[in-house]
Amino acid sequence: MDRLCVIYFAFLSWMMSGTESRLLPSAIDRIMGSLETKAITQTRFCDKLNGLTQLQKEWCHKYTPFVPAIGMGANLALKECRKAFQYERWNCTMDDSSFQHVSSFQSKETAFVDAIVSAGVMMAISRTCSRGKLTKYCGCDKSVLDEETTEEEFEWGGCGDNFLKGQQYSQQFLDLAAKDLPAPSETTTETVAGTPQSSVVEEYHKWNNRRGRLAVADNLATVCKCHGLCGDCTVKICWKEVRSVQIGEVLKESYREAKQVRLAHPLSPALVPANVENNAIAASAPNPILTTNALVYVKESPDFCVANGTIGVAGTARRRCKENSKASDGCELLCCGNGYFETRAVKREQCECKFVWCCEVKCQWCHKVYRYFHCKMPRPQVA
């Protein structure tokens, strides 16, 4: 199973076990309070998170108070992923029995998960720092205090989300997983375009992790608050906040631009497009795709049309689609040409509402028919 996705599910299952209330700030405070008072020993707590590498367990022992934030970031990533792919053939299927297989492909979909988890963890840690609960490690963002303001008259202040610390700690934790990939054996070395696969996969994970962090850093919001008598804005104080509303969309665009890659040279960490010839690359050349916003992948995606339990693909049968859409949510594309069927639902709703003087709105009750379309089962293959 892909190491990063094992980690993802380890934290996600821990954070979501029991009830959703464990994700609320008050619950996070209780968890962190237990850690601080040693009610939960750091060693026992970290060792219970199955799927961590040895390096990550060491990191967990050192930075245990960050663990709830990592879990919150993973949960945020799951929601953003499902939102971004709700009308795609792969709709961000996220459970141990299915996604763990897809994750082993190092495909575009796995690349997106790497990036969105990295972004979610960075955002959660940044916000946790600004809440003043981790003063031993971080606090409010102070980096903007050294920046000059624009023509608008305001002062930097407040308690901004500490995105620099969020970037630092999320990178440390997630990149440790890629660093701890098993080395290929001399007799069973699998290669991709002539390069040992473990080397390619390590750089692949690091690249996509970095892309997720950059998406957060590039989409910081400036939030301001006015201070003055009677509502006047005598003094305007502004700070930076991380925002999640656009991260899924930004990374979805990177997913569309994803490039298949390999290492430029066996001893070089630089990634290059898989279709670039070796003799066209200088050994000392900088990474030719480093300046792009694309995600990278190693292997082509599997066919998500037909359910295949062996590789963890759920298929598109019975998925809801839009009859007349030409986009990915359209029945023709989403159903992979297998056809679709219609279902109808009758709902009782208020209708023909009128304003009656004075001052009331009166409505009648109507029955409205809604039409829904779903993908058919794939046709049996003829032997």
UniProtKB/TrEMBL annotation:
Matches recorded under Gene3D superfamilies: 3.30.2460.20
One GO MF term: cytokine activity
Keyword field contains Magnesium: no
Compartments reported by the entry: Secreted, Extracellular space, Extracellular matrix
Keywords, comma-separated and alphabetical: Developmental protein, Disulfide bond, Extracellular matrix, Lipoprotein, Secreted, Signal, Wnt signaling pathway
GO BP, one annotated term: canonical Wnt signaling pathway
Main location: secreted
Domain of life: Eukaryota
A GO cellular-component term linked to this record: extracellular space
Signal sequence extent: 1-21
Cross-referenced InterPro entries: Wnt (IPR005817), Wnt_C (IPR043158)
Cited function: Ligand for members of the frizzled family of seven transmembrane receptors.
Family: Belongs to the Wnt family.
Name the record gives this protein: Protein Wnt
Lineage: Eukaryota, Metazoa, Porifera, Calcarea, Calcaronea
